[in-house]
Automatic annotation (TrEMBL):
Cellular localization per UniProt: Cell envelope
Entry annotated with the keyword Lipid biosynthesis: no
Highest taxon in the source lineage: Bacteria
Protein name stated in the entry: Probable sugar-binding periplasmic protein
Lineage of origin: Bacteria, Bacillati, Actinomycetota, Actinomycetes, Micromonosporales
Record carries keyword Mitochondrion: no
Keywords: Signal, Transport
GO cellular component: cell envelope
Length: 421
């Protein structure tokens, strides 16, 4: 996959795309009915993607007006709290962003979202989306959300100049090689070579390490109740994780992902583990001296997540929401959104033409790699489990002693509570 610097330098300039995308406000019809779209895409590459969808929606959905219900905070860390409170008060937005998989299943089980099976039939979505994804969106034969994309989580982003400055010219393929490179960077004067942010970004690092040390099948089993969180391989992974953490910035717990990304851009760090929304965001920041590769030991494994949109029970403007969902589902909508978001279309009939070298590789990998879901981004875990894991990792990060046995017991306890096995 995607490891060459040259290939990535050739990425289509998202800055150009940004300029071409407008949020459509100038063309809005003041008499139109509003559709409140609730996301956490507030700035950078995320906002650019949203703006592209809005632009298409404004063109395709006459009489409807986009209203931005954004609540900032990576991975929806703040948005989900606000959303859940609104849902509790029977005040849902007209539509909201939710991850396909376990996270969506929560909303389905609670009766919070409406069946979209008829829309899937009339929009031809059963043919346009991969069967595996349809399965992840379906509960008891009904299908409840429309995916906008596929993101990959287990990716390392690197500052090529920082690496070259430390004489690192090869992509690390194993965890040991990665740890050696981190030591090399520190020796070369980069005190905190691994840029890291708060709890959920730490969970992303942990999940990548678990994939390396357990392999995809046993990794997926951790969340399906078939792999023992108290086992030896998990202990090995947690030791690796603690080593990685020791190379990260001490202020990690107070940073969101774009602030950690800033450390990478400014050359204060050499690496960051992050999903491929980072591709769009680095471009939006006009930073091109980067490379990307699968987390060491994750070759051939695609840790996926998908942003999807729903028709909530009690949505104020169901007709407008249907038009939003149709836009999200359409080949044009998916193309324009994903060009700017760093992800790839969920539809299989959108070609790679015009997409960045990174995205074309990701499309290829998505077809050939072994897919595993993500807990930090809701494809593997329900929200309560995500929150519990985040709390455990945040606690570990701030603890002075970094006790691995305690960490393992605490993680295992979250699985005891939430795994469905
Ligand atoms: C979402 C992405 C988003 C990322 C960072 C993920 O959970 O699926 O769309 O870019 O969080 O905010």
């Amino acid at each position: 996959m995607l490891s060459t610097r040259r290939a990535l330098a050739a990425v289509v300039s998202v800055a150009t795309l940004l300029a071409a995308s407008a949020c459509g406000s100038a063309d809005e019809d003041p008499g139109a009915t509003k559709v409140e779209v609730f996301t956490w895409w507030a700035e950078g590459g995320e906002k650019a993607g949203l703006d592209a969808l809005v632009s298409r929606f404004t063109t395709d959905c006459a009489g409807q007006r986009f209203e931005d219900g954004v609540v900032a905070g990576g991975a929806g860390i703040n948005a989900k709290e606000v959303l859940n409170a609104r849902i509790e008060q029977n005040d849902p937005p007209d539509t909201y962003q939710v991850h396909a998989g376990a996270e969506l299943a929560d909303y389905i089980a609670a009766g919070r979202v409406q069946d979209l099976s008829a829309e899937y039939d009339s929009w031809g979505l059963r043919q346009a989306l991969p069967q595996g994804l349809i399965d992840d969106l379906t509960v008891d034969g009904k299908i409840y959300s429309v995916p906008a994309n596929i993101h990959r989580a287990n990716v390392v982003w690197a500052n090529s100049q920082v690496l070259a400055g430390a004489g690192i010219l090869r992509t690390p393929r194993t965890l040991d090689a990665f740890l050696k490179d981190l030591a090399k960077l520190r020796k070369a004067g980069i005190e905190s070579p691994l840029a890291l942010g708060r709890d959920w970004t730490q969970l992303m690092v942990l999940e990548s390490v678990l994939i390396s040390d357990l392999g995809p099948k046993r990794f997926a089993g951790l969340f399906a109740g078939t792999t023992n969180w108290r086992g030896k391989a998990v202990t090995t992974a947690l030791n690796h994780y603690a080593q990685l953490l020791s190379y990260s910035n001490p202020d990690r717990d107070s940073l969101d992902w774009p602030e950690a990304e800033r450390l990478l851009i400014d050359g204060q760090a050499g690496y960051q583990v992050m999903g491929d929304w980072e591709a769009a965001d680095l471009e939006a920041n006009n930073f091109r001296a980067y490379e990307a590769f699968p987390f060491p030991g994750n070759d051939g494994v695609f840790q996926w997540l998908a942003d999807s949109f729903v028709l909530p029970t009690g949505a104020g403007n169901a007709e407008g929401t249907r038009c939003w969902l149709k836009t999200v589902a359409s080949a044009d909508g998916q193309r324009e959104f994903n060009l700017r978001k760093g992800s790839i279309p969920a539809r299989t009939d959108v070609t790679g033409a015009g997409f960045s070298a990174y995205q074309v590789e990701a499309m290829k990998d998505w077809k050939s790699d072994t897919p595993v879901p993500s807990c930090a981004h809701g494809s593997a875990c329900p929200q309560d489990w995500q929150n519990a894991m985040n709390a455990v990792l945040g606690g570990f990060s701030t603890s002075a002693e970094k006790n691995i046995t305690q960490l393992q017991n605490a993680l295992a306890a979250t699985a005891d509570q939430y795994a469905k096995g």
